Amino acid sequence: MKFKVMMEFNESVLPALHKSPKEFASEIRLLAAAKWYELGLVSQEKAAEIAGLSRLDFLLAIFQMGVRGELD
For residue 41, what are the domain limits? Predict the structure, then answer.
């Protein structure tokens, strides 16, 4: 089963971050997944799924962000 999460933001955040709405949504998914992984709440596999990435792409992304989590 899938579900949708909706959040409202003022359009002024997009130019400030140099993001399109799609890029902004993808980044929010990645940041949430990375934080939950860092806190040990989800596995690498589940965090990658939340972020909408392969496990390898997720690991590369969090490495670039400086996120360190438990080794799965």
Answer: 20-65
